[in-house]
Design a protein that fits this description.
Layout (H helix, E strand, L loop, with lengths): L9 E4 L1 E4 L5 E5 L4 H6 L3 H12 L3 E5 L5 H18 L6 H12 L3 E7 L4 E10 L2 E9 L1 H6 L1 H15 L4 E6 L9
Parallel strand pairs: 7-8
Antiparallel strand pairs: 1-2, 3-8, 4-5, 5-6, 6-7
Helix pairs in contact: 2-6
């Protein structure tokens, strides 16, 4: 049960992140993969195809995590926090996030284009609907479009698992630079 794991509508993240009603960008996963990809900008489609041609691999974990996979996520999260000037998640939230993945309430996605994962995302997975929670990447993977490819592959994986929608989170058209 989500409440037993400490779930609430407020997630501690340095300060508090609130789920906002309305203005969410929701991707319909019932479409064929080419139609989903067509919803990306032409630049994002080209980036995704290039990263795929380079041989990048993705893995999605919903259930027990290896310590190595969790350590990769934490490393990538810290790299992103440093690059963006934000506070990394506190220990208690990291512990909760790991429990949510291991209890199958969340999915950890990893992108690898070399020896170690270069990018990661965490998606809430509840009642066959996914919600984007966090993404993190090495500087080079961020610059080269690894996150775009990982997100597209996450959409395909959720679709394969029978999920209907992916909520990309709130967008605020009046605030430049927000997702």
């Amino acid at each position: 049960d989500l409440l037993d794991l400490g779930f609430s509508s407020e997630i501690p993240w340095g300060g508090t992140l609130h789920y906002h009603p309305g203005f969410h960008n929701v991707i319909n996963l019932n479409q064929d993969p080419q139609h989903i990809l067509a919803g990306f900008s032409s630049t994002q489609r080209n980036i995704s195809r290039r990263v795929e041609k380079e041989g990048a691999l993705t893995r999605f974990i919903q259930g027990p995590l290896s310590e190595q996979d969790w350590d990769h996520f934490i490393r990538l999260h810290h790299a992103t926090a440093f690059r963006t000037g934000t506070e990394p998640y506190k220990d208690d939230y990291r512990k909760l996030l790991k429990q949510l993945i291991e209890k199958r309430f969340c999915v950890l996605g990893l992108l690898q284009n070399g020896n170690d994962p270069d990018a990661a995302i965490v998606l809430e997975s509840y009642k066959k609907r996914g919600t984007y929670l966090v993404g993190c990447a090495e500087d080079e993977a961020q610059r080269c479009g690894g996150m775009v490819y990982l997100l597209y592959q996450a959409m395909l994986q959720l679709k394969e698992w029978g999920y209907e929608y992916l909520d990309m989170g709130p967008t605020f058209p009046t605030l430049a630079g927000t997702k």
